[in-house]
Amino acid sequence: MEVSFAREISKLKLSEGEIFHGEGILAVTKALLQSGVSYVGGYQGAPVSHLIDVMVQAEPELADLGVHVEPCANEAAAAALLGASIMYPVRGAVTWKSIVGTNVAADALSNLASPGVCGGALIVVGEDYGEGSSVIQERTHAYAMKSTLWLMDPRPNLETIVDSVEAAFELSEASNTPVMLQLRIRACHVQGSFRAKDNAAADISIRSRLAEPAPHQYDQLAHPPATFAQERLKSGERLPAARQFIRQRRLNENFTGTQQNVGIITQGGLYNTLIRALTEIGFAGFDGGSEVPILSLNVVYPLVPEEILEFADGKDAVLILEEGQPEFIENEISAILRRAGCETILAGKDLLPMAGEYSAETVAAGLGKFLRRHLPDRCGELMDRSFAAEIDTLRQKAAELLPEPVPARPPGFCTGCPERPFFAALKLTEREIGKVHYSADIGCHAFATFAPFHFGNSILGYGMSLASNASVASFQEKRPLAVMGDGGFWHNGLLSGVASRLLNEGDGVLVIMKNGYTSATGTQEVISTPARSRRSQAAEASATHSERTIEDVLKAVGVKWLRTVHTYHVARMRDTLLDAFRTKEPGLKVIVAEGECQLERQRRIRPLRAGELAAGRRVVRTRFGIDEETCTGDHSCIRLSGCPTLTVRQSSDPLKSDPVAHVTNGCVGCGMCGEVAHAATLCPSFWRADIVSNPSRLDRLRAGLRRHLTGAGIA
Q1: How many domains does the chain have?
Q2: Which H/E stretch holds residue 454?
Q3: Helix 570-582 to helix 672-679 angle, to the nearest 10 degrees?
Q4: What is the C-alpha separation between 140 and 304, in angstroms, rounded?
Q5: Using the 8-state DSSP alphabet, how is residue 412 labeled?
Q6: 663, 646 Cβ separation under 8 angstroms
Q7: Which of 450, 431, 435 has its CA nearest to residue 681?
């Protein structure tokens, strides 16, 4: 079993009137069940991973409601799942990570939006944007506008988020259009409460099946010439219907204030940040009340012109708070005001940064400029200057406490990660053949782009590493190298990389990190996850040697040169890499670097070990260390490994001025440090010890004999 969501699952069972306490993404999960969904799918990725993870682990409970749950192979498959709502009155929801997921799903989304839906279709997107983001800095808004999909950006408040999810299905059905609901990182993890409702079972579901399929309706297919009429429906019928629903249901929130000649229009997701900034500069109280009127757009596309004009009426100036670029909302509001002949001054990106996350400090600075310009009598020496001065004072204090900058701490592999030894082997390989073009991929292995490895010439998408160096192979003497994980291989790499290279009879070296999971997104399962780790008993019963799935598929599509090497065998991996780069055999060379994700391995074996210890059974744990007398202080082992538990400390020998290498108690006993030292022919300073708990009589006899021989100077 992986991470347990037992507590979260229990919250999904809350009924009418009970109070739900938890975080944003779990509130979304509960709202889906209250909305009567027939199916839920998606592809994992922060910050919305919990939605699909909780759904998968709650499968027995969801079966009682008739909800079909499907973890999809990629985002395109998830988007295509919504095709069920085109001709059937069933509600469905899918989820994925931010713009990178929407990029993958774009083809299916275009073909979904064209005919529209009769059942409510919802896409929950984790808008992973800003300094804490792990993706390219783009926005989902562009896709909503391009494909005519409605986009909600709810205020980070659990009641608002839940209401938005339920309203999204109604909006989708009222306008026959799929709806996207974006949740920023903080919205996904914001804590709060709301009054729950009973979960609703859908009329059509796995418990209530249809006897016959829907009749053929050509005009509901995304196929010419039907698509020409569908384009007119988007703007002629669906858009007006959506605007009418948004206005009648008051999905956007208007907060009145005392300063009626100015106003702020903000994305709903930025509302909490805005209130924090207004509080800091003295225009809002800690109860959230603002002197400045605020229009919070919980639906950012489409905008309702009547709402914008009513809010701007009688105001000298309005500030648009819109995170990211381009300024889609600001430009649309400008067009609405100008077309109506409204002379209200519009401010936005002229006072706030064009790009980057809008923190409270950033927003306060922009607000200060806006309010000093348009409320000079109220502002005087506006408090945002005091706020800025306070921040400068805190920074000066921090500088005094830290006489020098904090050392850079780039991201790195987990302790005992099976991918780390592969990159040590690659460094040893390059000692013999020189540098090679390295195409990196999305996943944990991308940490090799940081110290101490510094590998990587490009990252172009999940599973795209092999495809990205196809042309490089044509103009370099050395074969290019591509690395992807098993998650990336199943997501996209098999077709766009392996199949394409085989089709074109191209050369190159591909390494597939077979750790058993899509680890970088939370160790979700893939088709090649070891059977012993599968959640479902049915999956385990039906899985026969699933560990060989990747190799079997590679052979089936025509890969001739194929090797499987355990990553901890550094010397063997180095020799295999050298063989792949030097062989005269043409075509694609594939190395499957096998080694279970260390986090999942520890989650699996620690409970077993604890049970053995509690039962008084013999348990052996391996530890590694370094002999101070032998260590020269060269630290090549650290430069080749980078393991967090392999560090330095001052030697106890007063004649050694340089620090020696040291293994901390965080060591998980993977053995990589010793393997690297052996493969690189480093100093023999590493030692291994087996720590025996609940030893047997034979163990005690051996230990006594060793102590005797050591004391006698024989051993």
Answers
A1: 4
A2: none
A3: 50
A4: 19
A5: -
A6: yes
A7: 431
